[in-house]
Write a structure and sequence with these properties.
The chain has 39 helices and two strands. It is mainly α. Helix 9 packs parallel to helix 11 and helix 12 packs antiparallel against helix 13. The longest helix has 20 residues.
């Protein structure tokens, strides 16, 4: 996507001068196209204006008028025709206004008060995307939160959480929204309140929300408490109470039990707070007696998260494992049945992580291993390997051979089905008996034990390279194993870096350690179309190694000279993360303040605030940026001067001049920066 954006950005620059500003004639043409009768033309024009960003500020009035567009268009398709509102046009327009940023704030503030609900809602979403720079509109957003239209209230809640940097103004308003009859409004209010992590009222409000009669509010509050991670002594008892949530009701419009959702969120947060296992596991083991598979499945997922597990935990899980196995064997004998293998494999994965308590079950597993039921043999092999590979050294080899055998001859797993039609029916109705699912479950079981995963590393590398990209679940399991092994799996580095980038691959590459930096540098020097990573993501991944990535500074510096906007922007953002060479990095960021694109200048100004040791060099440059033509650059310079927290007459004078800025949002930022400087102790 970023490559496509980079190519589209080049459309706006004249031939022979790739660094020139977008042609004003082109912007005027796009504004004219916004009034076209063709919906596709109007959407395309708004999207192009969004790509131009702050430099398209001349288009703000036209884009605001598009928000008011509720005309209907008739779409013809053969003998039929139908009407639809121009929703896509409005969506593209508020996206463009959001990317224009500061210069669009005054017009959007006025649009909130528009009687047209669609205009008000679109303006609120735009302001939420702009973020704290739009804080001047808080009073208008508050009024929108009181309107009867549910969609407007949702958008106002989102905007309050996004544009209020502190929370003193927004938290009282959001608290009243927790009792909304609309689940989306109530959930949105919890999410917005949780953004004010350091505010003293946040945790008390969330603890109160944990007792709400609305399961959506309870579930979101449980997530938020774990993410904030403070006041452990108050939060843990409230989360333990939520483990007893009643699961007899369903989420409106959904298929997931609300009680299970609240419980699982509470468990995840208890893990974050490192709650004692003897407090948690007895509660969650109760769900193994629940008749609904979802509750048992989530319980089996959760048990290994709490270590050390209390005595008797593995016995309870193994008892459940044998119970569901008997049910599955009984179902297999019945015609037209669809036996559930999933719960058995979930129990196996759980037991594999409790191997210090499972030695007593080895004789029973060996009986299964010697049986004729192929699925049972596979389960026993995987679990024996996880429990005790020393006492049964062939178990691991057998489990691996079973996985390979399944991939070669997948039909074998369905031998128990006598008729082809029955096999087809089972594959369509219940995909859990498909061979690749069984293979993934066994693979996950083996990889869950780090000792075994380390022994299997050569085999895992082979599998990872051989698996097709579309078999994402198997690759995901192996990627997670590499991440857990960390530097021990550094041999996987080239394969991971050559893979399509996704969050799991990024986490795994970071876990492998700083030895990956040279490989990433080599990847960055490839032709852009010869690698799987987009440049900004690749550069940011390098910078995520922190000061261990300092050898990459010359590479990042080279990208500052790129002819492509997104590459220069990615280099600036990456350089800002490297604090180990402040002299060199600051000079490069200062050079980026002279970039001809305002997005790069704003990013550079923003990053300079993180280098207080170079304040003497930085402050004069930021004071010059206060005179920039574009509001985003001026706002970033003000933010960095505030971050440096250095009282100097020239800094005060520069900020006081911004108090007279033509943009009201800039004036507000300057006021706050001056107030902050007053609180700094000399």
């Amino acid at each position: 996507m970023l490559r496509r954006i980079a190519l589209i950005v080049l459309i706006f620059v004249p031939a022979g001068n790739l660094e020139a500003q977008p042609d004003p004639k082109r912007i005027a043409q796009l504004v004219s196209d916004l009034r076209s009768q063709d919906v596709a033309d109007r959407v395309g024009s708004a999207q192009e204006l969004a790509l131009i960003g702050p430099e398209a500020r001349a288009a703000v009035p036209a884009l605001i008028s598009v928000l008011n567009d509720s005309d209907e268009c008739t779409i013809h398709s053969g003998p039929f025709s139908f009407q639809r509102r121009n929703v896509k046009v409005r969506e593209a327009a508020f996206e463009a206004l959001a990317t224009i940023g500061m210069d669009a704030v005054p017009a959007l503030s006025a649009a909130i008060l528009n009687d047209n609900d669609a205009v008000c809602e679109a303006a609120l979403w735009s302001l939420a995307k702009i973020g704290p720079k739009a804080r001047v509109t808080l009073r208008h957003v508050e009024k929108a939160a009181e309107r009867h239209n549910v969609k407007i209230r949702r958008a106002a809640i989102e905007a309050l959480g996004a544009i209020d940097p502190v929370g003193d103004f927004s938290i009282p308003i959001l608290r009243t929204c927790l009792t909304s009859d609309d689940n989306n409004c109530a959930e949105g209010a919890v999410i917005a309140i949780a953004k004010f992590r350091e505010h003293p009222r946040t945790i008390p409000i969330l603890l109160t929300a944990m007792t709400s009669t609305n399961p959506a509010v309870r579930g979101r509050a449980a997530i938020a408490l774990g993410a904030i991670g403070r006041q452990r002594e108050q939060c843990i008892p409230a989360l333990l109470v939520r483990l007893q949530d009643d699961g007899s009701y369903e989420v409106p419009g959904g298929c997931v039990s609300a009680g299970m959702w609240v419980k699982q969120n509470a468990i995840d947060s208890l893990v974050q707070f490192q709650a004692a296992s003897d407090q948690v596991i007895p509660e969650i083991l109760k769900d193994l007696h629940d008749q609904r598979p979802l509750f048992a499945r989530e319980t089996l997922h959760s048990i290994p998260l709490f270590q050390p597990t209390p005595p008797g935990t593995a016995a309870a899980v193994f008892q459940y494992f044998e119970r569901v196995k008997k049910l599955r064997l009984k179902e297999m004998k019945q015609p037209n049945s669809t036996p559930d293998f999933g719960l058995e494999f979930e129990a196996i994965k759980c037991l594999a992580n409790l191997s210090n308590q499972t030695q007593e079950f080895v004789p029973r597993l060996r009986e299964m291993f010697a049986g004729t039921d192929k699925v049972s043999k596979l389960e026993a092999a995987a679990l024996l390997a996880a429990i005790d590979s020393k006492s049964n050294p062939k178990a691991l080899e057998y489990a691996i051979s079973q996985i390979e055998w399944l991939s070669i001859d997948p039909a074998e797993i369905l031998d128990f089905a006598e008729a082809k039609e029955l096999r087809k029916h089972r594959l369509e109705i219940y995909p859990g008996i498909e061979p690749h699912v069984v293979q993934e479950m066994v693979l996950s079981t083996l990889c869950s034990n780090l000792t075994l995963a380390e022994k299997m590393l050569p085999k895992l590398l082979t599998w990872y390279d051989e698996l097709a990209f579309d078999i994402w679940l198997k690759r995901s399991v192996i990627t997670t194993a590499f991440a857990r092994l960390g530097p021990k799996a550094k041999a996987a580095g080239p394969s991971l870096i050559a893979d399509n980038n996704n969050p799991e691959v990024i986490r795994a590459v970071l876990a492998l350690g700083p030895e990956m930096v040279p490989l990433l540098i080599l990847e960055s020097r490839k032709d852009p179309y010869g690698r799987s990573w987009t440049t900004p993501e690749l550069l940011n991944l390098i910078a995520d190694f922190g000061d261990q990535a300092l050898p990459a500074v010359p590479v990042l510096t080279d990208f500052l000279k790129s002819r492509t906007l997104v590459e220069r922007l990615g280099a600036v953002q990456a350089l800002g993360k490297l604090r180990g060479l402040p002299d060199q990095v600051v000079l490069e960021l200062i050079s980026a303040l002279r970039d001809k694109r305002c997005a790069v200048r704003a990013a550079a100004a923003h990053q300079l605030g993180g280098f207080p040791s170079q304040a003497d060099l930085i402050i004069p440059q930021l004071l010059q940026s206060l005179q920039d033509d574009y509001g985003d650059v001026r706002a970033a310079a003000i933010a960095s001067l505030s971050q440096l927290r250095i009282k100097r007459p020239e800094v005060r004078a520069g900020l006081e001049r911004r108090q007279q800025d033509s943009n009201p949002a800039i004036r507000l930022l300057a006021d706050e920066a001056l107030n902050l400087l007053e609180s700094v102790v000399d």
